[in-house]
Fold this sequence. Notes:
By secondary structure, the chain is α/β, with parallel strands linked by helices. The protein has helices at 41-49, 63-66, 69-77, 95-103, 168-174, 196-202, 205-208, 219-227; strands spanning 3-9, 22-27, 30-35, 55-58, 86-91, 120-125, 128-131, 134-140, 150-154, 158-160, 180-184, 211-214, 231-232, 238-241. The model has no long low-confidence stretch (mean pLDDT 95). Zinc ion binds at residues 60, 62, 143, 163.
Amino acid sequence: MNWHLHFLGTGAAHAVELGSSAAVIERDxxxxxxxxxxxxxxxxxxxxxxxxxxxLYITHIHMDHVAGMERLFFRLWFDEALRGKTRLxxxxxxxxxxxxxxxxxxxxxxxxxxxYWEAFHLIPxxxxxxxxxxxxxxxxxxxxxxxxxxxxxxxxxxxxxxxTRPVPEALALFGAGGEVIAHDCxxxxxxxxTGVDDVDREYGAxxxxxxxxxxxxSHADGLALEARGYRVARTGERVALPPPSPTRDGAG
Length: 252
Ligand SMILES: [Zn+2]
């Protein structure tokens, strides 16, 4: 079975031309799990696969990662074949924030009669979750208030950090098995995001050589990151992943 990480967007919040950072885990060329749903993500997903996502994971509740969730509600609710079936995985600690920013608008439909979450199959998680027969680990990252952002990992296959400052403590646990490491990285770091100097300083070569950097500020910044010796994800690119190691449940 072939596994790929398909980057629908690779940009920082202001880098509209690169698309909002989001990616799809593909198995044998078929979409398995969408990571994040920004303002342009659904259009990019529909263009790539011809249908809305059947499963998604949300890393955190900044608008460039959840602004597509209202549209997705309408798309799913008004299609009886899809209504209530799309799995939405997120860390349980994020639920109040997603509720407040997206789901709590009064009268999700003007005509009434439906609650936001009835369009989805919501699956809150903490350590991780099962999806498509494999176990995905979820881990805390460093992005704004503690406990409001979580990365995703599939043992032996990939780590996707989501927006974050460097998280060497997480990669020591979830990125030490040969995984491809998709890491937030712009040209210059800030209190919210990783910069290339941070990557140089915080990670050993064994991690850096497996990194694919995304969430950067412009095409020019991407070229500059490459000039520093890093692999940089392009919008629309499919990055081949190693197959996952035998399924585990995060207990050991
Ligand atoms: Zn963010």
